[in-house]
Amino acid sequence: MQNNNLSARDLAVIWHPYTQMQTAPAPIGIVRGAGALLFDEQDNAYIDATSSWWVNIHGHAHPHIAKQLAAQALELEHCIFAGYTHPPAVNLAERLLQLLGGQQGKVFYSDNGSTAVEVALKMALQYWDNKGMPRRNILAFKNAYHGDTFGAMSVSGRSVFTRVFDDLLFDVHFLDVPAPGNLDELIAHIKKIDPSTIAAFIFEPLLQGSGGMIMYDKTTFDKLLQYCAGEKILLIADEVMTGFGRTGPDFAMQQVSVEPDMICLSKGLTGGTMALGVTTSTNTIYEAFLSADKLKTLFHGHSFTANPLACTAALASLDLFLDPACKANRERINALHQSFLLTLQANPLVKNPRLLGTVLAFEIVTSHADGYTNSLADKVHAFFRERRLMLRPLGNTLYILPPYCITDEQLHTIYNAITTFLHTLS
Ligand SMILES: *Cc1c(COP(=O)(O)O)cnc(C)c1O
C-alpha cells in the first residue's frame, strides 16, 4: 500500500465519527507516533494536545506497552470469557482492585466507556430487582456525557448529540451540577422524586468532559453523595475520563469522602493502546446476583470481553502509571498550566479559565451562544491544524488535556499558539 494519499483514499471509503463529512476538511493521514507526537505521511510532527480523545496517557507507541503486547499476541490473543479465564484478566483485576482500594470487590470487563456504563446501569437496576425491591428511577447531572449507546445516551444530558433520539431514550432525572450553596436545592429535587424509588446516581466526578470540560464544586458534590448514600441510592462513578490521574490523584473519587458502589473505567486504562472497558462493583452488589435461581444472573457480555491483548496493554500501562515519574509529570504539567492560567485570566477574550489536574479549559468569548455547535469551533480547529497542533475544541470551549509525557517545550508551543490565536480575534 502506497503512502502519501491516505486522505484521498480515506474519503472514498470511510465515514468518520463526530464529523460532518460534507464540510469537514479531509483527514490528515497519521503513520506513526512517539511520545506526545504524531507524524503524517511527509513526516511532519503534530503535538497531540488532547491525548487522542483523552485515551493516550503515556505517549504514542510506548515501547514497554508494545513489547508486552507483542509477547502476549504470540501466547494467547483471545479466549471466550464465560467458563474460561486467563492470566492477563486475573492479574489486571487483582491490580486494579488494589489500586482502587476501599470496597470495590469485583471487576466486570467490556470493550469501551459506553459499555462500561451500560453494564453499571444494568447492575444497578437488576441489583434492586434481585433483592425484590425494584427501584426504577435514575439520577444524573445536566450536561453529563456517558457515551453514545442508547443506555449511555439516556443518562447523558439531552443535547445536539441526542436530539434525534430523545423520544426513544428512557427517562432520567437530571440534577444541576453542584455549586456553592445549591445543596438544599439538589436534595429537595431528589426528595420530590422520592429517594426510595431511585436505583442509582451516575456522575462524572468533579469534571464533566464532553459537556464542555465543566469543573464543579467539590464540597457540595461530597455532601450530595453523602445524602444519596444515606438513601441507599447506588453511586456509579463514571471515571472513564477522570481515571488514571487526569484530575491529579489516581482517581477523581479520591477527592471526596464517599465511596462509590460502582466505577466505570476505559480511555486511559490501556494507555490508549487497545479498546477495553471495566465496571467494578462492591461485593454487596455482586452478592445480590448469587442465587440458585438462574434469572438472577447478570445476562450481559461482549464477544471481546476481557480480551487478553487489551488486558495486557492495561497491565503494561499500569506499570508506567505506578512509576513515580508519572505522578511527577502530572505535577509538572499542572504547575505549567497554572502559570498559563494567569495569562489567560488577564485576557478579555477568555471566559472562565479553569484548571483541574492536567486539564486546562476556557471559553472563547464570541457573539454566538456558547455550546458544541458554536461556529468558532471550525475556525479554531483549522488554525491549530495549520500549526500542527491537535486541539479539537468543544464548540467555543478550548482545552488542553495532554499525554503525561508531553515536554515543557511542547506545552509552551501550545500555549503560544493559543495566545496567537486569541490575538487574531482582537
Ligand atoms: C468518553 C466517555 C465515555 C464513553 O466512552 P467510549 O469509549 O467513547 O464509549 C463515557 N463516559 C465518559 C465520562 C467519557 O468521557
- By DSSP, the count of extended strands is 16
CATH topology of the largest domain: Aspartate Aminotransferase, domain 2
Say which CATH homologous superfamily of the largest domain is assigned.
Type I PLP-dependent aspartate aminotransferase-like (Major domain)
Rounded mean pLDDT is 96
Description of the structure:
There is one protein chain. This protein is α/β, with parallel strands linked by helices and 426 residues long. 36% of the residues lie in helices and 17% in strands. It has helices at 6-13, 51-54, 63-73, 87-100, 113-130, 150-154, 183-193, 218-230, 283-287, 308-322, 324-345, 376-386, 408-425; strands at 30-34, 37-40, 45-48, 104-110, 137-141, 173-175, 198-203, 207-208, 214-215, 234-238, 262-265, 277-282, 350-356, 359-364, 389-390, 397-400. The strands form four sheets. It has a seven-stranded mixed sheet with strand order 4-12-11-10-7-5-6, with helices on both faces. It has a four-stranded mixed sheet with strand order 1-2-3-15. Strand 5 (137-141), helix 6 and strand 6 (173-175) form a beta-alpha-beta unit. Helix 3 (63-73) packs antiparallel against helix 10 (308-322) and helix 11 (324-345) packs parallel to helix 13 (408-425). It is globular and about 65 Å long. The relative contact order is 0.15. The structure holds pyridoxal-5'-phosphate (PLP). Pyridoxal-5'-phosphate binds next to helix 5.
Which features characterize this protein?
426 residues, alpha/beta, Aspartate Aminotransferase, domain 2, 7-stranded mixed sheet, 36% helix, globular, binds pyridoxal-5'-phosphate, cytoplasm, PyrdxlP-dep_Trfase_small
